[in-house]
Predict the structure.
Amino acid sequence: SQQGEEDPQALSIQEGENATMNCSYKTSINNLQWYRQNSGRGLVHLILIRSNEREKHSGRLRVTLDTSKKSSSLLITASRAADTASYFCAWDSGYSTLTFGKGTMLLVSP
Amino acid sequence: GAVVSQHPSWVICKSGTSVKIECRSLDFQATTMFWYRQFPKQSLMLMATSNEGSKATYEQGVEKDKFLINHASLTLSTLTVTSAHPEDSSFYICSQIVNRANYGYTFGSGTRLTVV
């Protein structure tokens, strides 16, 4: 499997601000997913976007997908201190296994 | 929703000993289980894919004799780290597909292994 890139590697913002994380991948995909991981814990699925979709919303989350550029972005609006975590994108290239990006560590200060 | 119970959540062992990590599907029968390893401040790397009743498929660079995977039933998959070394210290996470049609995956809570 080939890992893509996520940027930024780390992001520090104030509560109420928006946080944008980007993900790039290297293969064709069936879908791309975003996960959240609190320090030392398991992963929580946030949102999935299929390859034929360009944008998806879920609460304060907005995900975009540009298959021509092999990239995706995750926007968290009106961030809260509780959003502090690491965020990973992961894609399914059609073999039912997920390949994870390198992740973005988000710190939201009160 | 589907839940994967993983334990232990953390374990400390001496070099040279073996450690078994269990992932149990509580309300779903998992024909396929994925095992990942995550080093500090890094991403998840797929180690192997196990299918119920057959041998696991290991990713390149993962020693199958060191990381023994058993998936003898639809509800239980185990990863045994044999002859553990300090460099095996890592966070191990299992995952299963719960809905192929919707590409839904669920993850265990992870096991922090420290080899001293």
